[in-house]
Amino acid sequence: MTELRAAPAETSVRESPVEAFEVELDLPAIAGHRSLLAHLGRAVLARLDTNLLPIRLAVAGLSESGYRCELGVVAGLQEDRMRRIPSIFDLRLRKARDESSFTTVFVVPTGIGASIGGHAGDATPAAQLLASVSDTLVTHPNVVNASDVNELPANALYVEGSVLARLLLGTVGLAPVRANRVLVVADAHPDSLYTDQLLNAVNAARSSFALTCSRVVLLDPPLPVESVYASSGRATGHVGGLERLFGVLDRHRHEYDAVALSTQIRVDPRTRIDYYGSRGEVLNPWGGVEAILTHAVSALYDVPTAHSPMLESRDVAGMEWGVVDPRMAAEVISITFFVSVLKGLQRSPRLVATREPGRGLLTVEQVSCLVVPDGAVGLPTLAALEQGIPVIAVRENENVLENDLRGLPWAHGQLHVVDNYWEAAGVAACLRAGIDPASVRRPLRDVQVETSPGSAA
Q1: Scanning 24, 148, 348, 400, which has its CA 20 to 30 A from the CA of 96?
Q2: Whole domain around residue 246: which residue ranges?
Q3: Is 48 helix (H, G, I), strand (E, B) or coil?
């Protein structure tokens, strides 16, 4: 087991023992990849230290011989708190399908270098397209957060990535809300410019789209958050001092329905320069560690959570990037990157732990299809595999994961591999209309015929 931890941030205050990071595990294969979710759960439990709480899973390499997994974990939690948190591998199989409406779940995993959705809200047009052929679209912040821009479709639900996985696993339902009370927790930046601009962003949200902000809490010293890359090339990182953050969330638990976070993220200066100058060839270094932080909060508190990075200094803010790749342009025109988070959380649905469908809840019974980048194997894909949910995999959304989805034991017609999001929307439209997608393609293959021998006399 390899731990991916960044060096501790320099601070005069003793670090809290609670932290989040990733570990790399090479796990044995199971024949035919059958019951893969349960197999991975057992294998992780057997290999992982008992003081580590899993919060996130990415399968970076899948083969007949084994699975190269990168697992987000929280370390240092008290035992009684760990016991209260369900396993990320828990599965409630759906007993039926509710086809009274069509719900699409759209995932672009954070930190995998996705060519569409791996930068700054640049999967939003794809989300809008998929929403147009769905009654409801469920997606996560990585898809639509674009610094000060958030064009979430009107029929879309904005949920944190781990919540989206739990929806597909059948262990949580989503309840619509009119508006959330949003608690803002942010670094007390040593340069007051950035604290002032964060408060200006909150007030702009209050005055322009009527955000209800219950409180702003500044963390002093700032939370130590650092970006690193895994051996697979995925962006990940280390978050320290979580005990201080959890203390804030505990003290104010009855004041908020959602949590908006803004912290500095330590990134190697050369990486930042390379990223903005690469025309998209360098993987976004911030998103992976942001996902670790928000997964930790959502797992422990069952609330919608999203994060934005805070600029480190005026030197960074004053860098002249010129005209950057369109996919990252939203980042270089913002100072706080925070308004998209506030807008998304304003009406993010309430989480309801559930073992059965409930009136007014969106549950796994209503999920009609899952759309992912080709090669993406994490909890959403594994849950869909077990639940019999059709999966649409998009080749054009290239990423660093080395998985062949065709090798998994899909039911007949469950996996649809398409070239782009135009085709993904077409397959979703077929499924919504009750049309076999293969029937509108040519050549149309002959139906499979099997002769069953009679019993002996």
Answers
A1: 348
A2: 175-352
A3: coil
